[in-house]
Amino acid sequence: MAALANLHPITRLPNAQRKRNNKTHQTQILASLQTKTLTRRAAISLASFILTLNHTHKPSLALDNGFWYEEPLPPPSVSNQIANEQTGTRSFLKKGLYMANIGVKGSMYRIKKYAFDLLAMADLVAEDTLNYVRKYLRLKSTFIYYDFDKVISAASENDKQPLTVMANKLFDNFEKLEDAARRKNFSETKSCYQETTVMLHEVMDRMASMYKTT
């Protein structure tokens, strides 16, 4: 029995040794992972610093790419007689909008679509929502105004005058509608809007016809 008792410490030594080896191996793995993590973080920090440094030393790249404006967007210009003869502009025009060049056919399509959007505004015309009516009208009518100018410029000589008359008739009514909504006169706003819907239908029909033949 004494001999067997003496053997117990001998048989336990390999287990203890394996535990120490496992702990040592785990410690080495953790140290390796920490080193890789620190290296990756250092690489990311260095790359971010280089990008920031390049951006700081080359600010002209943003200014020269054609998409950077330090001031408000310049308003587009019109080449046809569709502005108010007394003011030289239109009261409903909204500033700061980017007018993408989508081509003449694209302008026809957008006029038709935005005219439809204004027709769908009927449920919005109420005594307590005139402020929203005015904002929505200004947004849509601004695009219609500049798109109409492009369509007139590209039209044939026989179509230029009828299109100009149609545009001025519509824009005169837009100004009345915008003014009534601004003054929060509900009865006048409703009356002007009803007149506008008739013109919007005419515009939609004309743009749809021109779109098919262009």
TrEMBL record:
Q: Which locations, inside or outside the cell, does it occupy?
A: Plastid, Chloroplast thylakoid membrane
Q: InterPro entries under this entry?
A: PsbQ-like_dom_sf, PSII_PsbQ, PSII_PsbQ_pln
Region annotation (Disordered) ranges = 1-23
Q: Which GO terms describe its molecular function?
A: calcium ion binding
For this UniProt record, give its keywords in alphabetical order, as a comma-separated list: Chloroplast, Membrane, Plastid, Thylakoid, Transit peptide
Biological process according to GO:
photosynthetic electron transport chain
The record's GO CC annotations read: chloroplast thylakoid membrane; extrinsic component of membrane; photosystem II oxygen evolving complex
Give the family per the record.
Belongs to the PsbQ family.
What PANTHER family does the database record attribute to this sequence?
Answer: OXYGEN-EVOLVING ENHANCER PROTEIN 3-1, CHLOROPLASTIC, PHOTOSYNTHETIC NDH SUBUNIT OF LUMENAL LOCATION 3, CHLOROPLASTIC
Q: What is this protein called?
A: Photosynthetic NDH subunit of lumenal location 3, chloroplastic
| Classification of source organism | Eukaryota, Viridiplantae, Streptophyta, Embryophyta, Tracheophyta
